[in-house]
Amino acid sequence: MIYHRAERAIETDRLLLRLFKQTDAMDVSYHCNNYNIYKSTLTLPYPYPIECAVDWIANHEQNFDLDKMYDFAITDKADGRLYGAIGLSNHLSHHNGEIGYWIGEAHWGHGYGTEAARAVIEFAFTEKKYHKVYARHFASNPASGRIMQKCGMTYEGTLKDQIHKINSYEDLVYYGIVNPAHPSQ
User: Fold this and answer.
1) Which residue from 68, 76, 81 is spatially nearest to 31, judged by alpha carbons?
2) Which residues 6+ apart lie within 8 Å of 119 measured at CB?
3) How does residue 184 score in pLDDT terms, banded at 50, 70 and 90?
4) Does the pLDDT value for residue 185 go beyond 60?
5) Fewer Cβ atoms within 10 Å of its own Cβ: the N or the C terminal residue of the chain?
6) In the structure, how many helices (H) and strands (E) does the chain have?
7) Phi first, then psi: what are they for 49, rounded to 5°?
8) What one-character-per-residue DSSP string does 3-45 give?
């Protein structure tokens, strides 16, 4: 992982994680206006018109500058194609944050989520000096949990019937990883 501070971008072997631009709104809307993504995410609406993407992107730069939230577009390093998004919240008082991501369905199964998540965890630990990064996924979306496991996160617990979505209750499964440079006290 290489962090380009001036550009606020993270480079990996295959990916460039960069701030979203308003010109990404059409691609974001295309990927997110998908029932299969909606049913496995906590906050994405469905349908997902372009106005949702425009509004969502509008605050990213300010949130980044204020160290509130770091949202990155997951893009192909070679051709700039948008694969998805990954975000990291910043809970300053607790020295931690939550990582969340989505990958467009056409790009599932290629390891982009894992590669992006590993890079953002490293960004959290090396650049932002977090003590811990955590994540959660619906029990009905075990692929997201596999990404967390591949990133070295460990299972921390399940909140039963925590979320009501699509006329049923969903368990939320929690994972976390502690910065190896900041062992627990």
Assistant:
1) 81
2) 1, 10, 12, 15, 17
3) low
4) no
5) C
6) 6, 9
7) -75, 165
8) EETTTTEEE-SSEEEE---GGGHHHHHHHHS-HHHHTT-SS--
**Cα gap 84→152, rounded to integer Å:** 21
Number of Cβ atoms within 10 Å of the Cβ of 33? 18
At position 126, the amino acid (one-letter code) is T
Those residues with Cβ within 8 angstroms of residue 70's Cβ, 6 or more apart along the chain or in another chain = 63, 64, 87, 88, 90, 120, 123, 128
Instruction: Give the C-alpha separation, 118 to 148, whole Å.
Output: 9
Distance CA 104, CA 36 (A): 10
Phi/psi for 38 (5° steps) reads -55, -45
| pTM exceeds 0.70 | yes
**Per-residue pLDDT for 1 more than 90?**
no
- Give me 6's structure tokens: 């001036």
How many Å apart are CA 76 and CA 151, to the nearest integer?
Answer: 20
Tokens at 130, concatenated = 């977090």
Q: What is the pLDDT of residues 119-176, one digit of tens each?
A: 999 999 999 999 999 999 999 999 999 999 999 999 999 999 999 999 999 999 999 9
**For the chain, what is the radius of gyration of the CA atoms?**
16
- Measured in residues, the chain has a length of 185
